[in-house]
TrEMBL record:
It comes from Sphingomonas lycopersici. InterPro entries: Glyco_trans_2-like (IPR001173), Nucleotide-diphossugar_trans (IPR029044). CDD domains: GT_2_like_c. Residues 9-138 form the Glycosyltransferase 2-like domain. This is Glycosyltransferase family 2 protein.
Length: 356
């Protein structure tokens, strides 16, 4: 009788067929794994580029789940998670390529230390350079201001707060606040029945699950011993809906605002608005001075991000109303056998969900 898989790799795909092919090929060709030790699950969020046909034809061993709608990253991961009983799960972006030994060594690391709840990997950019968004410190007003308001160029480095995104390339294995959901391996016993808070579509959900797991007494670790290439933003760059694009702001903002008062929330919005408004102005000027340098695209992104920010801020109900709604509409989540009450956002109503 074949033993059940120890590790399930869950990949949520949306319209990145060719990148998904490379991702699945790298997973298939991984070394150091016993036959049947790993299963791969692809959740396709209603792609229109032939992704599902490619998976069925070229990777018949992969379990394919067609969601029928763009559920987003967080809800897509949940669909894959519920389809497996494996004790360990690796969330892997479709725009990643794992090194041959990465999966086996990640599995060995988390399995051999029963205190580890979440393990993240070192991510590298397409050009081989270190990707700062591999992980970092939880956002604070200090590290957000340092990151978005160019304070690192104006003040001594010794004044720098713990970086919200890693500002160096740390070696070895070490504790960390959060690791990127692009490659996040976790123990089922630590996470419980639901991976992410249901308020998330994508972005910020990796911070939230890392905090919940750590608060429940498990280790959250970053490992530089495994490197994974991450062609960052390939799926997101194809999104055209402003509602979906707004999630790059809404998700981290929702995470930051939990347990903080009105002044801190206002400062958060002011820091990010100032940061992206200044980037829009700077990149627009550079694009005019140096056409074809790529600054025009960066200026367009900054402008769209500002639009998403404004839409998010002015669509929210007043703070006291939101608190009343949250008190009435709380949801319970089992985290490592601890129950805690987590507020829902009114934006989770079916009519308000992004559908791009």
């Amino acid at each position: 009788m074949t033993a059940p898989p120890r590790l399930a790799i869950v990949i949520v795909n949306w319209n990145v067929r060719d990148l998904l092919r490379d991702c699945l090929a790298a997973v298939r060709d991984s070394e150091g794994l016993a036959p049947g030790e790993v299963e791969t699950i692809v959740v396709d969020n209603d792609s229109a580029d032939g992704s599902t046909a490619m998976v069925a034809a070229e990777f018949p061993a992969v379990r394919l789940i067609e969601s029928g709608a763009n559920l987003g990253f967080a809800h897509g991961c949940q669909r894959g998670y519920e389809a497996t009983a494996a004790p360990f799960v690796m969330l892997l972006n479709p725009d990643t390529v794992v090194d041959r030994d990465a999966i086996a060594t990640m599995l060995a690391t988390i399995a051999n230390d029963p205190a580890i709840g979440i393990l993240g990997a070192r991510l590298r950019n397409s050009d081989g350079s270190f990707q700062r968004a591999s992980g970092g410190a939880f956002p604070t007003l200090a590290n957000l201001a340092w990151n978005y308001l160019f304070l690192g160029h104006l003040l001594p480095r010794r004044w720098a707060p713990p970086a919200v995104y890693l500002d160096d390339d740390p070696p070895g294995i070490r504790p960390i606040d959060w690791v990127s959901g692009a490659s996040l391996t976790f123990r089922r016993a630590a996470v419980g029945p639901r991976i992410f808070h249901p308020a998330f579509f994508m972005f910020g959900e990796d911070m939230e699950v890392c905090r919940r797991v750590r608060d429940a007494g498990w280790k959250v670790l970053y490992s530089a011993r495994q490197s994974i290439t991450h062609h960052h933003g390939q799926s997101f760059s194809r999104q055209t809906s402003l509602e979906v694009l707004a999630t790059v702001y809404k998700g981290p903002r929702f995470f930051f605002r939990q347990g903080r008062g009105p002044l801190a929330r206002l400062c958060y919005d002011a820091i990010l608005f100032t940061g992206y408004a200044s980037r829009w102005a700077i990149f627009s000027l550079l694009a005019a001075v140096r056409p074809g340098s790529g600054h025009a695209e960066m200026a367009r992104f900054s402008r769209r991000y500002l639009g998403a920010m404004i839409k998010t801020m002015f669509r929210e109900p007043p703070l006291h109303n939101r608190r009343e709604q949250n008190d009435e509409q709380g949801c319970k989540t089992n985290i490592g056998h601890r129950w805690r009450r987590i507020p829902r956002l009114s934006s989770l109503r079916q009519a308000d969900r992004p559908r791009a």
